[in-house]
Amino acid sequence: MTAHSHAHAHPHGGQGHSHGLVDASIKRSREGLRAVGLALLILGLTAVVQTAVFVASGSVALLADLIHNFGDAATAIPLAVAFALRSARAERIAGLFVVLAIFVSACVAGVEAVARLIEPREPSHLLALGVAGALGFAGNWVAAAVRTRAGRRLDSPALIADGAHARADAYVSLAVVASAIVVALGLDIADPLIGLGITLVILRITWASWRTVRAGHGHDHTGHDDHHDHAH
Asked: 3-state class of 34 per DSSP?
């Protein structure tokens, strides 16, 4: 009985060790890809609907939010590649892409807001504009929850930064709702001013995300599997 138990335990333990190493890497990759893909779907649908409303309303506040949402959705590409490769280095690079995408969207939104200040144009379809802003809030909030939960579970600074980015975007989307309200009250100049305010918020998000990704570089949590493989 003892010999049988020992013989059974040994091969099972050996298989468990080998199988566990492979499974940990593949499981992390699949979970990361699932989270990135789901967030991309949510933000993509949100941005498409907002695009239709922008074409009808012409709101620069909505445009600023729309540009950011498209940029936010695009950050899923390098993150997906990193998880597919199961590479800590690729994940760190993806985190830098996230920060760059946020910064570029801030620049574009700021330019559009300034242009609208120089050549004012009253937004139309205010009810649709308010609904689009509310939709942006909901879409970003759900995407943030998906990314943050997965980022913490997988110990991925890049995914955590992207989650914080989407959560802040949710609040930024509420500014679009505010724009619809103030324009309805007759304060047309408030629309591009709110667009500039959104730009400043995006720049702040850029800095916060950079600090998160940089901190992740120092701890190198995502590289654990890579170092373990090299050691063997």
From this structure: helix
Note the pTM of the prediction, 2 decimals: 0.68
Distances in whole angstroms, Cα of residue 178 to Cα of each of 52, 67, 101, 173, 175? 19, 18, 25, 9, 5
Nearest to 194 by CA among 231, 185, 43: 185
Cβ atoms of 42 and 179 within 8 Å: the answer is: no
Separation of CA 4 from chain center: 53
| CA neighbor of 160 nearest in space, from 209, 218, 110 | 209
Interior/surface letters 115-124, b for 16+ CB within 10 angstroms, e for the rest = ebeeeeeebe
List the structure tokens of 58: 């012409």
* Confidence at residue 227, expressed as pLDDT on a 0 to 100 scale: 41
The Cα 120–Cα 22 span in angstroms is: 59
Segments making up each domain of the chain, as ranges: 32-231
Would you report the helix, strand and coil content of the chain in percent, each value rounded to 5? 90, 0, 10
Sequence-separated (6 or more) residues with CB below 8 Å from residue 231: none
Assigned CATH class of 32-231: mainly alpha
Give the residue with greater pLDDT, 7 vs 176: 176
Tell me if 72 sits within 8 A of 44, measured CB to CB. no
Give the pair of three-digit tokens for residue 42: 């949510």
